[in-house]
From TrEMBL:
Origin species: Arenimonas composti TR7-09 = DSM 18010
CDD domains: HAMP, HisKA
GO cellular component term, pick one: plasma membrane
Listed name of the protein: histidine kinase
Residues of the signal peptide: none
Length: 503
C-alpha cells in the first residue's frame, strides 16, 4: 500500500518533532545568552573596580598633598581604556578635586557628591565609586564612568539566535518529514488493513511484516490477533447455530412460564381477596368481642360496687373482700381486652408516617403518668432533639407501654429515675428507655416480648403481659428491632430503632 506523506499522523509527528526541536533550541540558546550576559556583567564590573582600586592608590598621595596636577595626570591615563568615559577624584569633604572626561562627554555629567563604594548601572553606563584610604582614614573617593553594552550584546545575540533557530528549524523540518515517512509507513499499512477488515469483514487479511523494532512487533501482534479473531469467528458462527436451536427451546419454555405466571397471579389475587375478607372479619370480631365482653364486665364491676355501697350493713367483711376481688378481676379482664384490641390494631392498617420529635412525645407521656400519681417523686431525663419518621399514633402507644413499665417497676426504688435518650451509630439512631427499678433476670429475656408472658408476679406488679408484645410489633412494623438489658434490683434498659428523618 502506498504511503501518504501528508497523512494526519505524519503531520502530527512532524509538529511534535518541530516543537521538541524548537523548545530544546530555545532552552539552549537562552541558557547560553544568559550565561554570556552574566559573564559580561561580572567581567565589566570586576575590571572597572580593579581600575578604580589602582586609581585610588595612584592618587592617594596627590590628594594627601593637594597636588591637583598629579591627580589630573593619573586620571588622564584612563583615556587608554576606550570604554571609560570619565573619571574624577573627590576629597573627603565631597568636593571634586580633579576630573577628566572624553570630548563627547560633559562636565555636568559628574555627580555633585560621591557615593559609597559600589557599582551601579544606569542604562548604557556603569558607574564605580571607590574610597581612597590612607593611614589617617578616608582621604577621598574615585569615580569612574564607563560604557555598558549589555543591551547591545543582547540585541546581537537575539539576531544571531533567531538566524540559528530558523536554520535549525529548517533542518529539523526536513528530518521530521523523513522520519515521519519511516514511522508512519508501517502504521498506515496496518490502518489500511484495519479499514479493509471493517468494510469487508474479511479476517484473513494480514499486515505487511515489519522489522525488528516496535512497529514490526506491532504488525506481528496485529496478525496474530487477526488469526485469533478469525478462529473465534468461525467458532462463534458454529455457536450461533447451536444458540438458534436453544432459543427455540427457550421460547417454548418462556411461553410455559407466562402461562404459569398468569395462573399464579390469579391465585395470588384470590388469596389476597380471601386475606382481606379474613382481616375484615377479624376486625368485626374484635369489635364484637370488645362490645360483648365489656358489657358483662361492666355489669359485674358495677353490681359488685353497688352491693358494697348500697348495702354496707348487709355485706359482711368476708363478702366485701370477695366482692373486691370480683371487681379487681373484672377490671383486669377489661384491661386485658383493651390490650388485646390494641395488639390486634397494631398489626392492621397502613402506617401514617410523619416527622416529629420523639423526646417531645415522651415528655407528654411522662407528664400524663405524673398527673395520675402526683404523690410520686421521679427524676426524669429526656434527651432532645430526637427526630424520627414514623407513625405518631403507634410510637405514642410504644412509649406509653415502655414508660408505663418504667414508671411501674421503679415505684419501690429509693430515688426513682427514668431516662429517655438516643445513641447514634452513623445514620442509625438507637433509642433507649432506662429505669432504676426492679429489673429482671436476663436468662428469661427471650420471653419478654411474647404475649401473656410476665417475669414478675401479679401481686408485686400489676399487668396483663401484652404491653411488650405490642411494643415489639410496633417496632417491627417500622422495620426496626428491639432488645433489652437488665439486672435484678438494678433496673432495665430497652433499646429500639426507628427510621430517621428523610427515610
Amino acid at each position: 500500500m502506498a504511503v501518504q506523506v501528508a497523512s494526519p499522523l505524519a503531520r502530527t509527528l512532524s509538529r511534535i518533532m518541530l516543537v521538541t526541536a524548537f523548545t530544546a533550541l530555545m532552552v539552549a540558546l537562552t541558557a547560553i545568552v544568559a550565561w554570556d550576559l552574566r559573564a559580561y556583567h561580572a567581567r565589566t564590573t570586576a575590571d572597572l573596580q580593579t581600575q578604580a582600586e589602582l586609581l585610588a592608590r595612584a592618587t592617594a598621595a596627590a590628594v594627601a598633598f593637594d597636588d591637583v596636577q598629579a591627580a589630573t595626570e593619573n586620571l588622564e591615563l584612563m583615556q587608554l581604556r576606550p570604554t571609560i568615559q570619565a573619571a574624577a577624584v573627590y576629597t573627603a569633604r565631597g568636593e571634586r578635586f580633579a576630573a577628566w572626561h572624553r570630548a563627547d562627554q560633559s562636565v555636568d555629567d559628574f555627580p555633585p557628591l560621591p557615593e559609597g563604594d559600589g557599582a551601579a548601572v544606569h542604562g548604557r553606563r556603569m558607574v564605580i565609586f571607590r574610597r581612597i584610604v590612607d593611614g589617617s582614614g578616608i582621604a577621598g573617593t574615585v569615580y569612574l564612568r564607563a560604557d555598558y553594552e549589555l543591551l547591545g550584546r543582547f540585541g546581537e545575540y537575539t539576531v544571531i539566535s533567531t538566524g540559528a533557530l530558523l536554520v535549525a528549524l529548517a533542518i529539523a523540518l526536513l528530518l521530521s518529514r523523513r522520519l515521519a515517512r519511516v514511522i508512519t509507513g508501517p502504521v498506515l499499512d496496518m490502518a489500511g488493513v484495519a479499514r479493509a477488515i471493517e468494510r469487508d469483514r474479511d479476517y484473513s487479511r494480514r499486515a505487511a511484516a515489519g522489522g525488528d523494532d516496535e512497529l514490526g512487533l506491532l504488525a506481528e501482534t496485529l496478525n496474530r490477533m487477526l488469526a485469533e479473531i478469525e478462529r473465534r469467528t468461525e467458532a462463534l458462527e458454529a455457536a450461533n447455530a447451536e444458540l438458534a436451536r436453544e432459543v427455540g427451546d427457550r421460547s417454548r419454555a418462556e411461553a410455559e412460564v407466562v402461562r404459569l405466571n398468569a395462573e399464579l397471579e390469579a391465585r395470588v389475587a384470590e388469596r389476597t381477596a380471601q386475606l382481606e375478607a379474613a382481616n375484615q372479619e377479624l376486625e368485626t370480631f374484635c369489635y364484637s368481642v370488645s362490645h360483648d365482653l365489656r358489657a358483662p364486665l361492666r355489669s359485674i364491676n358495677g353490681f359488685s360496687q353497688a352491693l358494697v355501697e348500697d348495702f354496707p350493713d348487709a355485706v359482711e367483711a368476708g363478702a366485701r373482700r370477695y366482692l373486691d376481688r370480683i371487681r379487681a378481676a373484672s377490671q383486669r379482664m377489661g384491661q386485658l381486652i383493651e390490650d388485646l384490641l390494641t395488639l390486634s390494631q397494631v398489626s392492621r392498617g397502613s402506617l401514617q408516617r410523619s416527622e416529629f420529635d420523639l423526646g417531645e412525645l415522651a415528655r407528654t407521656v411522662l407528664a400524663d403518668l405524673a398527673q395520675r400519681e402526683p404523690e410520686r417523686r421521679v427524676e426524669v431525663s429526656v434527651w432532645s432533639p430526637m427526630p424520627v419518621n414514623a407513625d405518631r399514633r403507634l410510637v405514642q402507644a410504644l412509649l406509653e407501654n415502655l414508660l408505663g413499665n418504667a414508671w411501674k417497676f421503679s415505684a419501690r426504688a429509693d430515688a426513682a429515675r427514668i431516662e429517655v435518650g438516643v445513641l447514634r451509630d452513623g445514620s442509625q439512631q438507637i433509642f433507649f428507655v432506662r429505669d432504676n427499678g426492679a429489673g429482671f433476670d436476663m436468662q428469661y429475656a427471650d420471653k419478654l416480648f411474647a404475649p401473656f408472658q410476665r417475669l414478675h408476679s401479679g401481686d408485686d406488679f400489676a399487668g396483663t403481659g401484652i404491653g411488650l408484645a405490642t411494643v415489639q410489633r410496633i417496632v417491627h412494623r417500622h422495620g426496626g428491632r428491639i432488645w433489652a438489658d437488665a439486672r435484678v434490683g438494678a433496673g432495665a434498659v430497652f433499646h429500639f430503632t426507628l427510621p430517621p428523618p428523610g427515610e
